[in-house]
Design brief:
By secondary structure, the chain is of the alpha+beta class. It has nine helices and 33 strands.
Length: about 625
């Protein structure tokens, strides 16, 4: 009885709980503001938050992203600031676009009467890849792209000092004409940066470049030796399978290079290229580890050519085919070579129209290890009917999902890139348009949770292109009750898919209006930039919160940079359209305006679903009319 009385007199307090219990509690806090407020209550909790709190918050709320390894509490706090700001920018469509174009544009060439006979009348397709290395306060971003027969790279070095970031950049150009390549036949058709460990000692960055004439080589990306050939990959002349027109290249974590031609897939080794001690590597050819001609498979349906190829893991590759009854193939690496098979089809897959073959244009492996029971070879594939399918290639998995642009229902996709399991970006195969899809997985962080409570609905009300009812909320709570797990009306609806629609982004560059998106790349999951390759144009798609104004270039930039204003169209939740008649083709298009908005008040602008550059002052009347 005495011990119970003592317990009642001295009940446990939050700051006296064991550290392990406190860390579990931190895992349930879903906003950075809650973490910061808890750290401000007492000295002990402030020290705990500074040492471990931001690491727990980032790993809990952004578990689907590939996060850099860090032992610094300061870096985890910085990551919390960066990732929460980026999440808000993605949700509010706070984007800034820049075009990167070479000084000699197509119009300049038209005015040049003595154009070389080897030049093309239209610019080549930009094929781009990117990679980010982070260590402490220092980031290094590599972007490499093929522009016709040339290879261009920009290397940005970012050093953080407090809240400021100092940026320096180097530009490099490897002219194809100086290496015997001509426009057209020698154009770059695929490019892949060899990802090394961050700042690995004695290992320089390198890039694998494939060309239309079948040439495949590893080039140095080091500052002093940029463009130098480190290795050349081709089969021996006695091989029955010839390497013509490289269609795709991918490099896995063990530096195995997979490449595809129109009919075949090849695996090459790329280890220890830094130990090559030769002055002239033009005669250094590497034979493939194994190869497979998909045309030789008699058990599977025929196809026209290979469109895309991706490495899923060390034992599995996925291949996308043009015009086939089985346009998705799985290649398994075995001791005797590559085994070819087809994945199981979805049970609800739409039947082929008039029994015609289909096409898969783009592939993207998806890492689902952050999901409970998530494993396997999960991949996104874009089909010629406009659908994008998430599928475990081994089985008809219950996590399979079919996405579709609810506005341009039948427009196929040329390129895909993902941002963890939160969203993915798709490039149109018909026009200069980017499409942003939400995966619709449960998310760990919603930026709206940190905004004030209200009993009104989120505004402005979305106008999706499909006929869909606005969700009903049967209560009008003006405050959240976290003790009983109740949310106010505004916070409850802000998490609903209806108020977080997907969107299409129309790029503003008129000279390239007819160009589709040929390639997409991003440096990392924590990077605020996505790169899109068009015809003769590279687009830099950045989040607004990470815009830097001061950049020091060690030499004149090879490409000119120009800001453009885009148009945004909201397209609904992205689910598959089974009945096209339910689509209404008059959605609202918003155009960016950076001239500044007057009036409305800070609260009205913050609670608007979209960025200030996309807001219409007339919509604030909806905010004023609702109870707060």
């Amino acid at each position: 009885m005495e011990s119970l009385s003592a317990l009642n007199l001295n009940p446990p307090k939050l700051d006296t709980l064991p550290t392990d219990i406190l860390l579990i509690i931190l895992g349930y806090l879903d906003t950075a503001r809650s973490i910061a407020h808890l750290g401000a209550t007492c000295k002990g909790l402030c020290q705990l938050i500074s040492a471990e709190g931001w690491r727990v918050f980032v790993r809990t709320c952004f578990s689907s992203l590939r996060l850099p390894e860090s032992n610094s509490a300061e870096e985890w706090a910085r990551l919390a600031r960066v990732l929460t700001a980026q999440s808000r920018d993605w949700d509010r469509r706070a984007f800034v676009f820049h075009s990167l174009t070479p000084p000699e544009t197509r119009e300049t060439r038209r005015r040049n009467d003595r154009r070389p006979q080897t030049s093309q009348s239209i610019p080549g397709n930009i094929i781009v890849d990117a990679h980010l290395q982070s260590q402490g306060h220092f980031d290094e971003e590599f972007v490499a792209w093929g522009a016709g027969e040339d290879v261009v790279a920009r290397i940005q070095r970012k050093k953080r000092k407090g809240q400021a970031t100092l940026i320096s950049e180097d530009w490099h150009l490897c002219k194809g004409s100086e290496n015997g390549f001509v426009a057209g036949k020698g154009d770059t058709t695929s490019i892949s940066i060899v990802k090394t460990s961050p700042f690995e000692d004695g290992r320089d960055m390198s890039v694998v470049v494939g060309r239309a004439n079948g040439d495949l080589r590893l080039l140095s990306m080091d500052h002093s030796t940029f463009g130098r050939t480190l290795m050349r990959f081709r089969p021996s002349p006695a091989s029955p399978i010839h390497q013509h027109e490289i269609r795709a290249v991918d490099v896995d974590s063990s530096n195995i290079i997979a490449t595809s031609t129109r009919e075949s897939v090849w695996l090459y080794p790329a280890q220890n290229h830094d130990q090559v001690q030769v002055n002239d590597t033009e005669d250094l050819f590497i034979d493939p580890i194994t190869t497979a001609c998909l045309k030789d498979s008699q058990q599977l349906s025929s196809f026209e050519f290979i469109r895309s190829m991706k490495i899923l893991n060390k034992e599995t590759l996925a291949v996308a085919l043009n015009r086939s009854f089985d346009p998705l193939r799985v290649l398994t690496v075995t001791p005797t070579g590559l085994d070819i098979s087809k994945p199981a089809r979805n049970l609800d897959e739409l039947p082929y129209i008039d029994a015609s073959p289909r096409t898969v244009r783009a592939l993207l492996p998806v890492d689902v290890r952050s999901i409970a029971s998530g494993y396997g070879n999960v991949i996104l594939s874009s089909w010629d009917d406009g659908t994008i399918r998430l599928q475990d290639l081994r089985t008809p998995s219950p996590v399979d999902q079919i996405y579709q642009d609810n506005f341009e229902v039948a427009t196929p996709i040329n390129a895909l890139i993902s941002h963890g399991l939160e969203r993915f970006v798709a490039g149109s195969a018909y026009s200069h348009m980017l499409k942003i899809f939400d995966f619709r997985w449960p998310r760990g962080y919603y930026h709206t949770d940190s905004l004030p409570c209200t009993s009104s609905r989120p505004y402005p009300t979305p106008r999706p292109p499909t006929i869909i009812d606005e969700p009903e909320c049967y209560h009008r709570r003006s405050l959240c009750n976290h003790l009983f797990g109740y949310r106010c009306r505004w916070h409850a609806l802000s998490r609903h898919d209806f108020y977080r629609p997907n969107c299409n982004i129309y790029l503003p560059f008129r000279n390239y209006a007819s160009s589709p998106i040929y390639s997409l790349a991003k440096p990392s999951d924590i990077s605020p930039v996505v790169y899109a390759g068009l015809s003769g144009l590279l687009v830099e798609f950045a989040l607004k919160s990470d815009m830097h104004t001061a950049t020091v270039s060690n030499q004149p930039p090879l490409y000119t940079r120009q800001t453009g204003k885009v148009a945004v169209l909201e397209t609904g939740d992205g689910s598959r359209i089974l009945d096209v008649s339910k689509c209404q083709r008059v959605p609202e298009i918003r155009r960016q305006s950076f001239s500044g908005i007057e009036g409305g008040g800070i609260t009205a602008r913050r609670q608007h679903r979209l960025d200030e550059a996309l807001q219409d002052p007339r919509e604030w009347q909806e905010f004023k009319a609702s109870p707060i």
